[in-house]
């Protein structure tokens, strides 16, 4: 049962990442192509919007950490913000490196970079650090 639940949680997290990611990617292209921002700035803005969507879906659907305690929410938001900051930095830098060093179009470079950042950085930190439920939190929420 534990294994089945872990797989289901992983799949739910991928749906959350996909929805946030599609928003992020689409907004990045809009800001770069229509509003002529450099793609690294577009990634900063679109990554922030995508992160808000991703956080909300993860909090209320995937990991169901909906405690009303403001200190708990603030802790999650702070941790999530740090993950997002790292994620946006890695995505911007990785996309830039692929574009400048290998002349890979920024849209393709972004997809390549995203696949590594999402699975190797975002998911583990979000699951095991941001939305990790400890015994103390379980006791508070069950009362």
UniProtKB/TrEMBL annotation:
Its main location: membrane. GO terms for cellular component: membrane. The keyword Ribosomal protein does not apply. It is a multi-pass membrane protein. The chain crosses the membrane at residues 7-31, 37-57, 77-98. Pfam families: GtrA_DPMS_TM (PF04138). It is found in: Membrane. One of its GO terms (biological process) is polysaccharide biosynthetic process. Residues 18-131 form the GtrA/DPMS transmembrane domain. Keywords: Membrane, Transmembrane, Transmembrane helix. InterPro entries: GtrA_DPMS_TM. It comes from the Bacteria. This is GtrA/DPMS transmembrane domain-containing protein.
């Amino acid at each position: 049962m534990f294994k089945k639940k872990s797989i289901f949680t992983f799949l739910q997290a991928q749906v959350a990442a996909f929805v946030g990611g599609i928003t992020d990617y689409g907004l990045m292209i809009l800001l770069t192509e229509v509003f002529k921002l450099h793609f690294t700035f577009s990634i900063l803005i679109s990554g922030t919007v995508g992160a808000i969507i991703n956080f909300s879906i993860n909090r209320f659907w995937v990991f169901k950490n909906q405690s009303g305690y403001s200190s708990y929410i603030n802790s999650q938001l702070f941790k999530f913000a740090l993950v997002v900051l790292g994620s946006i930095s890695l995505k911007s830098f990785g996309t830039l490196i692929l574009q400048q060093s290998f002349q890979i179009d920024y849209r393709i470079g972004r997809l390549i970079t995203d696949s590594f950042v999402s699975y190797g950085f975002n998911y583990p930190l979000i699951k095991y650090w941001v939305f990790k439920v400890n015994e103390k939190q379980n006791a508070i929420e069950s009362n």
